[in-house]
Amino acid sequence: MATRRIKFIGKAYGADGTVTMQIRMNGNEVFNGNVLAETTLEKTSYDPYEVCEFNLDASVTGWIPMEIAVTHGDIFFINLQGNYTGYSLTGFNNETNDTSQMVFEVSPEDYFGELNNNTLETDGKRHAIWESGTLPPYNRDDVSEQILTENNWLGEWSYFIPENDKLTFEFYIDPDIDCSTVTLEQAITKMKEMYNQGT
User: Fold this and answer.
1) What is the DSSP secondary-structure string of the chain?
2) pLDDT at res. 134
3) ∠165-141-148 over CA atoms, to 5°?
4) Domain range annotation of the chain
5) Which of 37, 102, 110, 188 has the highest count of CB atoms within 10 angstroms of its CB?
6) What are the distances in angstroms from CA 96 to CA 122, 185, 187, 194?
């Protein structure tokens, strides 16, 4: 099975410019080290970025137990993104419906995207518990109407993990978006089917 690269999206804050973070998924340590951090006193989850990257077997899907432990600073956890979540093609001749020149513009191995789709009930995270006893966010279904009426979209929640604390939760990796075994021929066939349905 392919090895999936995972990008941890969030923000890090530390007085000396680094934060130490340990991440476990499915019972295994996937990351343990220092990450670059902002030193500003004002801490927000706005404008998140890739904090770190680690590997995970692409066969790992469903609701996955996850832990994030933080020392020497604070972390905002927003989301995980992974490769093998899509692809893009180029070279299609729209006038002749010719696919002979088609190639991957971005291959599944290099395509990074969301590992799940947001719903009213979840943003792909559930059962959040802080080791320190910090109160978790409201349940998503408690504010689902507000999410729709005020924002008109289903976004990611941010989870603040203060220094010397650990967040335990489950993260959903949708097996239906796995493209780790998609070949160019399969991608072209699927594209042609979608094209024919639209004409």
Assistant:
1) -PEEEEEEEEEEE-TTSEEEEEEEETTEEEEEEEEE-B--S----SS-EEEEEEEEETT--EEEEEEEEEESSEEEEEEEEEESS--EEE--BTTTTB-TT-EEEE-TTT-EEESS---SS-SSEEEEEETT-PPPPPPGGGSHHHIIIIISS-----EEE-TTEEEEEEEEE-GGG--TT--HHHHHHHHHHHHHHH-
2) 79
3) 110
4) 3-84+112-181
5) 37
6) 43, 19, 19, 16
pTM for the structure as a whole: 0.87
pLDDT of 147-156, one tens digit each?
A: 555 555 567 8
Q: Beta strands 74-83 and 159-161: pairing type? A: antiparallel
> What's the mean per-residue pLDDT of the chain?
88
Kindly state the average pLDDT of the residues 28-44.
94
